[in-house]
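Regression check, PBG case 324:
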Amino acid sequence: MSFPIVRMRRLRKDENLRRLVRETNLSVDDFILPLFVRPGENIRTEIKSMPGNYQLSIDQLVKECTEARELGIPGVILFGIPEKKDELGSEAYADNGIIQRAVRAIKEKVPGLLVITDVCMCEYTSHGHCGIIKNGTVDNDETLVFLAKEALSHARAGADIIAPSDMMDGRVGAIRKILDENGFSNIPIMSYSAKYASSFYGPFRDAAESPPKFGDRRGYQMDPGNGAEALREVELDIKEGADIVMVKPALSYLDIIYRVKNRFNVPVAAYNVSGEFACVKAAELNGWIDGERVMMEILYSIKRAGADIILTYFAKDAAKLLNS
Ligand code: PBG
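Current build output:
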């Protein structure tokens, strides 16, 4: 059968019809909101390249989390800006580090909200790399010891999910092992499995004050030209015990999200990263695009590609629209 019996436009003519046949459902249930926390009190410093996002002191972070919970957002992921940085990133695994204190405060004051912690060294090291430097390069196996310590200290503080983003080989296994040995066998790991060496992280590095002081991250993050390699990364992480696997960034890697979802039977997360957010905001502020519609189109595309979970700086705005 074909035209004129078939007319595809019949089911597009009004919004109720479109709602009935829409194949992808986007919901506030899908979102995780990334938040940045720093020491101090009553601090709410807007991140220039990420309008509407802030470096927050713990008291303000608690407010932001309360708002997220009221909007129905299931969880937040935390990034810390420490008091001071050093070669070994000591604050990453300190009992009274910024993340550890923030987690305890949210767990106490905002029950019913999932707290996910990003496990990485780059925000805490003076050189800004994601691990321990030996002979001028990030030493994989030495770094694993530190990442495991960091993950354990997050779990002890009360984190609900541990999310390693460093891209060292073997880190999911190392983290699973230390968590299990210390009575945290029920804490899931959401691994940044296919994390690309992307220039879309620019604004985040301003927000977290974490750009590398020398070189770049191409020696450990993935090459943007590769696809099959992402499937290998995901497979290894699942074997090491990852409960949720992530593709990051989302938009230039929708094909990777699609392939991962089709190949593996595990929940897939996608990180709609800072640069993707910043591009939309900048164009919106210039009056060049309808920011709200572009936001929803982007979120639909990530869900349609196969993501079960979307980490996004749009979480609050999208939740407001979806709830209204
Ligand atoms: C590393 C980390 C980064 C992001 C999340 N975790 C930055 C990096 O690898 O340089 C980027 C997130 C974003 O751009 O929104 N701790």
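Comparison notes: The longest strand covers residues 31-37. The chain has a mean pLDDT of 97. No diff flagged against the previous build.
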